[in-house]
């Protein structure tokens, strides 16, 4: 994770992030979707850039309109199943004992074993279990997936932006929208496995095509 943090740190939202943030802001989407009761941005990214763009565009630091289904690299969570502790942690590495591991991973070497005592622990009284990056690892269930599916089932429009549509269960979400009579628009650099199921496909850079199509 120290390697991923080193890759993400210092990155800024691009125009595609900002356009989607405007679409999530009621006062800024009036010309495009004046009758929209709700816009929800579901992202698979763990870099936090969608929330950063929303903050820059609307002044909001958090919003129910953005769901990070795979978590956020800059948050930590307790590993205990009966503990709900989470907090923001922008340190890189998240503890001194992991310092330098990002270089080791980047060079393709095996990560060193770090003693449990030197790893971060939950500060909640009576807990003390290990903390971990608050992201979804391979094989784990995405965050808020039940809510996301229910939202997809009642949505009248789904924008699929900058994804290969290979990762389940996210790749199934457009099908829920279509099953309810909704429309699907794909924005991507190239065709995806599910492009033939979309009502519209816009090929090219998302930061360009989103702006051209939505006018935001």
Any overview of this molecule?
The chain is of the alpha/beta class. It has two domains: 2-70 and 140-214, Rossmann fold; 72-135, SIR2/SIRT2 'Small Domain' (2-Layer Sandwich). Helices cover 27% and strands 17% of the residues. The chain contains seven helices and eight strands; from the N terminus they run ααβαβββαβαβαββα. The strands form three sheets. It has a three-stranded antiparallel beta sheet with strand order 4-3-5, with no helix packed on it. Strand 3 (71-78) and strand 4 form a beta hairpin. It is elongated and about 55 Å long. The two termini are 35 Å apart. The model has no long low-confidence stretch (mean pLDDT 89).
CATH homologous superfamily title of the largest domain: TPP-binding domain
Domain module count: 2
Coarse shape: elongated
Percent range of helical residues: 25-40%
Strand content: 15-25%
Give the strand line-up of the largest sheet.
Answer: 4-3-5
Number of strands: 8
Structural class by sheet pairing and helices: alpha/beta
CATH class of the largest domain reads Alpha Beta
The low-pLDDT segments are none
The biggest sheet, with number of strands, parallel, antiparallel or mixed sense and barrel status, is: 3 strands, antiparallel
Helix run count: 7
* H/E series: HHEHEEEHEHEHEEH
Query: Would you tell me the overall average pLDDT?
Result: 89
CATH architecture name of the largest domain = 3-Layer(aba) Sandwich
Q: Could you tell me the radius of gyration in angstroms?
A: 19 Å
Main location: mitochondrion
Active site: 70 (proton acceptor)
Keywords: Metal-binding, Mitochondrion, NAD, Transferase, Zinc
Pfam family, one: SIR2
């Amino acid at each position: 994770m120290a390697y991923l943090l080193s890759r993400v740190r210092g990155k800024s939202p691009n125009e595609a992030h900002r356009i989607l943030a405007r679409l999530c802001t009621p006062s800024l989407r009036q010309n495009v979707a004046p009758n929209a009761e709700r816009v929800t941005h579901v992202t698979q990214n763990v870099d936090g850039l969608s929330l950063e763009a929303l903050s820059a565009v609307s002044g909001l630091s958090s919003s129910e309109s953005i769901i990070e289904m795979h978590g956020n690299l800059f948050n930590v969570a307790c590993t205990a199943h009966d503990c709900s502790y989470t907090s923001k942690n922008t340190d890189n590495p998240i503890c001194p004992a992991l310092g330098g591991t990002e270089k080791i991973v980047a060079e393709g070497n095996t990560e060193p074993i770090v003693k449990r005592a030197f790893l971060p622990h939950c500060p909640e009284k009576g807990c003390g279990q290990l903390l971990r990056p608050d992201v979804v690892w391979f094989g784990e269930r995405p965050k808020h997936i039940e809510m996301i599916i229910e939202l997809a089932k009642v949505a009248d429009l789904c924008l699929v932006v900058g994804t290969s549509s290979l990762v389940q269960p996210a790749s199934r979400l457009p099908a829920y929208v279509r099953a309810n009579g909704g429309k699907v628009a794909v924005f991507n650099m190239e065709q995806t496995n599910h492009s033939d199921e979309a009502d519209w496909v816009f090929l090219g850079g998302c930061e360009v095509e989103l702006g051209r199509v939505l006018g935001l």
